[in-house]
Amino acid sequence: MAIEQQAATQAVPVARRRRLRGETAAEALVRLSGISVIIFVVLVFVFLAREGIPAFFEVEAGNLLGTRWYPTVGRYGLLPLITGSLLVTAGAVLISVPLGLAAAIYMHELAPAWLREILKPLIEILAGIPSVVLGFLGMIAVAPLLREHLNMPTGLSAFAGSVMLAYMALPTIISVSDDAIDAVPRSYRDASLALGANHWQTVCHAVVPAARSGIMVAVMLGIGRAIGETMAVLMVTGNAARMPDGLSALFQPVRTMTATIAAEMGEVANGSVHYHVLFAIGIVLFLITFLVNLLASVLMLRRGTRRDQLLE
Amino acid sequence: MSREMKQKLAFALLTAAAVVVVVPVLLVAGYIIWRGAGAISLEFLLSAPRHGLREGGIFPAAIGTVILTLGTAIVALPLGVGAAIYLSEYARDDLLTRLIRMAIINLAGIPSVVYGLFGLGLFVLFLRCGTSILAGSLTLGLLTLPVVISTAEEAIRAVPQSFRVVSVSLGGTKWQTIRHLVLPNALPGIITGVILGLERAAGETAPILFTVAAVYLPRLPRSIFDQTMALPYHLFVISTQVPGMPMTLQFGTALVLLAFVLSLNAAATIIRSHFRRRRSW
Question: Of A55, A144, A299, A306, which is least surrounded by CB within 10 A?
Fold first, then answer.
């Protein structure tokens, strides 16, 4: 095989041979950049593991699964941080999913073309606002509002975090649901209208159900976005690491996994137990977002196949 | 309730939802401009902070953000466009391609603070870059990569297949076709994608917390191995860590950061619409 190739290259003129070599080099380079993406994901995991796994040997399981996070006295209970993240994310999803879906339906079905041209850039702007700017506004404007109107001791609470996160997840939820609604075949709509349904009945009983797997993708991506958000959450949730007790916990200060890493990593000694535990939290975050995104991509794939079947 | 009434009610609710989504965006932008405009002056933009950050300007932080944004582009542009070319022009529908696509989705979903941890573990400590512009740019570059790849791939795929067929039938090789025909035609789309990626990187705080950002540096960085201040981190510091901080400086910093990020967004939009109008296919 190698000899054959050599014979072939000897047969072609020098200029052509040089061009062929350039051709192979270019292909090798772009292939390498493609493969590098896989390498990076592996590297992220390897380096999180390298710095985080020691935590599971240094701190006993009972301590890690405990309900007290006091690193200064060696209590590394992750439960308040995990439940804090879940609480804030759940609140964000409850606000942003109905709101985002409704806004997407409005933009797709009701808004005249000129209004859509105004709404779309506004939503892009929302997506572009840095989370630290939203966090800053949350601190000085939203939290005081909540304190006054909801009669809370401090506005800095899980709920304030949920509101900020909801708005940060909205652009993703709106644009992905918009695509999903757009992908519903026209025939579904026509069939519903021909059966005498009005516009709303068509949207509600034909279009949205047909788009539901795409809408699920939107929800998953929104959850992924919300659970990993750091700065805004760090600035508005009040950062008290305590176990949420029931629904009222939504209106008390909490602390999320992301905020804990951001707030404490700067102050720990490299290689200390506390440092390893913060990386271990990073592993937990990585795994959660990995699962959420995996679910989203599986749903996306399924949607693809179903649409193919329709075309056949 | 008649079905017409139901429709009216439902549509009113949908409209209300759109208003609830959009009005806060206008309020946020308006409020920051209103409260921050007073702080903007040449002195604010061109001098370093003084007196424990409570006076002076944001010059080192603004320059730091520009440097980090450029560094991010240098990392993400070649890798991202290379990967996009591979996926759109070379990749077969095989296991490797599926793995790459999964990796991109996964990379896009990694929380920004986890990128920060990764940058600390790999670039700062393992590769001994230290907390430096180099480590920060590499971290931000990786974070930007998924956006660059997916938008660049979309732009490359949008170049009509007939262009490629003509080039190859005239004797062009595959790489010549890509280099002289596909890439130039996809360029506006690629640039748009890169700028949108940079928009995200410029506003990020969590990935630079442990890889590059300094609370206070009176002078500008001299090399890529220096630390630097950056606008997002500066805003975080002066709004949470400095007691008795004047509000105008906080709003002024927020305004400059927002203006920088949104002007990147506007640039991307203008390029996109300009070339879409000029495009002959």
Answer: A306
